[in-house]
Amino acid sequence: MSDEDFERVQRAVVREVVDEQSRAGLDVVTDGLIRWYDPVSHLARAMEGCEIDGLLRFFDTNFYFRQPVVRGRVRRSRPVLRDEFAYARSVTDRHVKAVMTGPYTLAKLSINRSGASFEEVVRWFADVLAEEAEDLSRAGAEFIQVEEPAIVRNPSDFGIFSEALEAIVKRAGGDRIVLTTYFGDASPIYESLLDVGVGGLGLDFTYSGRLPELIAELGCEKDLWLGVVDGRNTKMEREEEVLAVMKKVLSKVSSRRVFIMPSCGLGEYLPRRVAFRKLVLVSRVVERWKSEQGQA
Amino acid sequence: MWRGGRVSRDKLERLGLKVPVLPTTAVGSYPKFPYLLEARKKFLQGNLSREELLELERKATRDWIELQQEIGLDVLVDGEMYRGDMVTYFAENMDGFALSGLVRSYGNRYYRKPIIVGEVRWTGPITVDWWKFAQGLTEKPVKGMVTGPYTMMDWSFNEYYPSRRDACLALAGAIHKEVAELWRSGAKIIQIDEPAISARPEELDLAIEAMKRVVEGIDAYFIVHICYGAFEFIYPGMLELPVDNFDLEMSNSSLDLVELFRKHPFTKDISFGVVDVHSHVVEEVGLIEERIGKALEVVRPENLWIDPDCGLKTRSVQETIGKLKNMVVAVRKVRERLNG
Lengths: 296, 340
Prior knowledge:
Strand order of the largest sheet of chain A: 1-4-6-7-8-9-10
Mean pLDDT of chain B: 93
Number of strands of chain B: 9
Shape of chain A: globular
Strand content of chain B: 15-25%
Distance between the termini of chain A: 58 Å
Oligomer: heterodimer
Largest sheet of chain B: 6 strands, parallel
Strand order of the largest sheet of chain B: 3-5-6-7-8-9
Structural class of chain A: alpha/beta
Low-confidence stretches of chain A: none
Largest sheet of chain A: 7 strands, parallel
Mean pLDDT of chain A: 95
Largest interface: A-B, 26 and 28 residues
């Protein structure tokens, strides 16, 4: 198959999944990451200093990624996300959220054979991703979701993690960055997350019963992206359950904007029809919330 | 240094199993021959009867048993010609499961992930007839092969049990019955596939508890297969799994585990993966010898088994034969050195 034909198919699938999200009633859509082989090698493949190696399980899922081996100074060899974002935006009138795996998680999931320290490798990845984020920002991305699932499992690395994010914030502007964690309990690091200079926080509520009270207690001034619908189980939540969690979380926060979403990406973990039903559930919950608030 | 030592060799002898030093084996699955792939497609389209498909699955099993004997493996597998996926196959044959749509595994590979929708129950033998059939074709031991409860739980959606623990222990009870039936039928080496076990270190105790239920009261030589996870978080704790042999993927992870075993000695038998199942390249004999040499730095010869990293079903038949042949040649060379 020629590159042109392949690109034609990829674009058709992007249109299809963007349309699917619109039909489900979402206000903010993504391009479905349909070009991504996995969340790690898709970005690392376009970097000097990285070789792509064998398969490894992605956290506690049954989904696998190709592991990068860092052999030397990491540099961007070509831009990746800018054109992907631009295409998605050209096919919809909804808001489009760009997605990237964060520098700390990329480094954590790579094998470091560069001779440099782990911290240095995180900084290298941060430099490349800051360029990507800057491109996205120039292309008009309102929301850039930087995914950092690895930090919830390694809270003691918070220093270098936050340094790397600030590097991205500096180049792309903090307002549009949505720092997102999933596949683990974010409550132990929630307070520290508030100090990172990003505009939004995305959180997975399926791993922690404590998180809603904690947010109510400590408050939040950033945009909140609440992963309150389980993106990893086919069991459909009752709308009341989800609303109850939302109410608890939002009782004291002063966030300007609040978004409701599944707890993680859906493409890898749910069958497509169930994924669609989960998105419909997300928009129904939001509708109910709005009408209840309206009445109040 | 090693607490395991001869204990497992004594067990093999007691069970009447004669295997040479550095026994060679395979992890479980082999690629399906083109005629079987074609037949499975026809069956799904409704153009082939269940009985006709079964006959071809038997033929494919016979072909793999013959090939393994020609290649010279010591402990054989039936090749899983009758299975699609290792979790789905068992889910389809137990009560309590429904099947979902396609879920991504990696790249463009997808599988049907089971959904637990009711009480999980073993309703009768699942793999036993296949084991009997395969064992009836050869003098060499054939491994009994089942997917473990932790992996069945972790790789299924759960809409029924209140917790992961409840689902896992219910599955352990069901799988115990299958294992007991294999044992009663004469299987002396039984492998429990638990690839998911390394994914959540905090649940290792649950996996161990479930495995205890699976093997309880059964005097077989048990192997657990674990792969593609972060072993550094569950080692050495995982040695508490009540099995005799750990079958681990080593080549794909650049043999990092060997370093781990230097720090904390491996106390049981190990089936050491020496060929990468995700690479089309057939490893040279010299490279495989080198990998076996690495293993021998940290494990005694009497505790070491040699096999591929994982099931070979994603490779071509030719690549599979090539990898297994070179593996056997490499093992023979190492054996000669050990004897000489």
